[in-house]
Amino acid sequence: MALDSPKLRDLLKNVAVGKIQLPDFQREWKWDDERIKALIATVTLNYPLGVVMTLETGGVAQFRARTLAGVKVDPVVVPDLLLLDGQQRLTSLVQALHLDQPVATVDTRGRKVERWYYMDIDRAVDPNADRDEAVVSVPADRVLREDFARRVRLDLSTREGECGVGYFPLRLVFDDDAVSAWQKSFVGLTDENWDRWAMFNARVLNNVRECLVPMIRLDSTTPNEAVCSVFERVNTGGVVLNVFELLTATYAGDRKHSEEHGTEYSLPEVWRSTKEKLVGLYPVLGQVESGRDEGLTNVDFLQAVSLVLSYERKTGGSATAVACKRRDLLALPLVEFRRLEPVLAEAFAWVGRFLSTQSIFTVRDLPYRTQLVPLAAVKALLGNRADDPEVMERLDRWFWCGVLGEMYGGSVESRFTRDVEQLVAWINGSPDEPDTVVESVFLAERLTTLTTRNSAAYKGIQALIVKQGAVDWSHPEDRMTGAFVIGQGVAIRQIFPATWITRNGHPKSRADSIVNKTPMSHAASRRMTGAPSAYVNVLARESGTPDEWFDDILTTHLVDPVSLRADDFTTFYASRYERLLSLVEMAMNKRVVRRTGAAS
Q1: What angle separates helix 389-404 from helix 413-427, to the nearest 10 degrees?
Q2: Shortest CA distance to 247 belongs to which of 343, 334, 310, 377?
Q3: Is the pLDDT reported for residue 223 higher than 80?
Q4: Residue 414 parent element (H or E)
């Protein structure tokens, strides 16, 4: 790392010719007119501009680069430096002080405008005047109008107009010949302008010409992880740089790929195509619309690739650990990503099918998105063996232990790596169960506290109710398939309505508990009001089902039909509490923990 202080003149020249460019992961320039004027005032006073930070390329950019907004250069130009911090300042200054074109910015209301910037010479040399007020911006035609644009207040469209009112065009400040020509026109108007110009030159132009910009240069050998970290720390906007965005710029800058294929590698296009195919088949994996990346994310996909690659390398002796942390993703070689991308795409499609077998059909009902990452990695490593009955049995148990034991909340990268290694070993015959299976625990009283979708176990139990054969009370002839769940608006409904429970003296917490809830269609939920003894008869009559048959339908939701028809909430709750615990024990293949004295 080196620190120097080049002149602003030289810095902007290097920006204008493409020697300084932006890594493609940088956000777009977005400063407004007022901030640009304030920045120009700072420069003309020779006040500190703040440090800018750059990364040396060594003649070969490690990221795809692009010029600063407004700068046009030959695309083949390889920058000497990539700008990590200072984009807003340097873009504003190169457009306002160097390029011979209006600055495309926005006004205070966010409307797009084009502006030229001038310095009012009289205000600039007045020691009692505010320098900010001396900086003037005018429209692209250099004419300021008022009275709803019916009257011209200031016309700077010609040099004569500029000199006549003493407004110096700041776009000329670094063009010595142009400044001399403008000065000649200005002082030629009257001898008094000589003194005005001398003061302006000394108090303003010299400040701009001599302005130094402190600049940190990071060596070209700086690793991507450090670049990413530095960018986030120095970026005053507080924008977190997504690993996917950094890899996008890295892969697009891979010259070997570009030379072999005649085009840059577009990671966003590859990901979007993959995601669209996945969610088109399995809505549980999310959706892609209007730029949203809901459900399965691009970083999830990268983590799965990293898990597979590092597992291969470890078993092959070229790596010491299975890993998918940030630094590991940033070190993913493009050639390896291209090899594994279709493998993981198929693995996540398999995950979508797996979730369907667990009666999890929508992203809203997915207990843990993160748990899909090691599952996909394990599928990719196992290949077709993942569909063997004995393998599926172990994957099912691991999955439900993770969900019902609520093992995948918080930071999960270390669990990812352990689960991949331990799951593959367990499936390959190791007697040792994965930590997620061994450590998972379900406390019996947890049922009473599961009240919202914020809990993975809450979503998981609802899925298990469907999986074990729940039949909708308004559509007893249809199975609760994915199409039914989505098409009939199946959601989690209260069996005993909350108003009935509180009116009859039972605690509201019992009404909100998962023990009193079950997946049901919108049509059925419309009838589930008032006393259950009344609405059950309505549902049975509307579906044309005899009472004794409808009782069988009620039991598919682990509901005791006798207590439900008798409006006996206490007996209903105790019965369903035990049935749900049995359901949990079957899924986890282990006993729930009942603490002494804990009430159901």
Answers
A1: 150
A2: 334
A3: no
A4: helix 413-427
DSSP state of 557: T
What global pTM score does this model have? Answer: 0.74
Cβ–Cβ < 8 Å for 321, 314: yes
Name the residue among 583, 396, 366, 356 with its Cα closest to residue 484.
Answer: 356
If pLDDT is split at 50, 70 and 90, which confidence band does 290 have?
A: very low
- Residues in contact with 35: Cβ distance below 8 Å, sequence separation at least 6, in sequence order: 88, 92
Per-residue tokens: 506: 């039972």
Categorise residue 337: left if φ over 0, alpha if ψ from -120 to 50, beta otherwise: alpha
Q: What percent of the chain has pLDDT over 90?
A: 74
pLDDT category at 233 given cuts 50, 70, 90 is low
Residues in the chain: 600
Is 135 strand, coil or helix? Answer: strand
DSSP annotation of 203 reads: I
Element (H, E) at 293: strand 292-295
- What is the secondary structure of 38-95 as a DSSP string? HHHHHHHTT-----EEEEE-TTS-SS-EEPPTT----TTPPPSEEEEE-HHHHHHHHH
The residue type of 469 is G
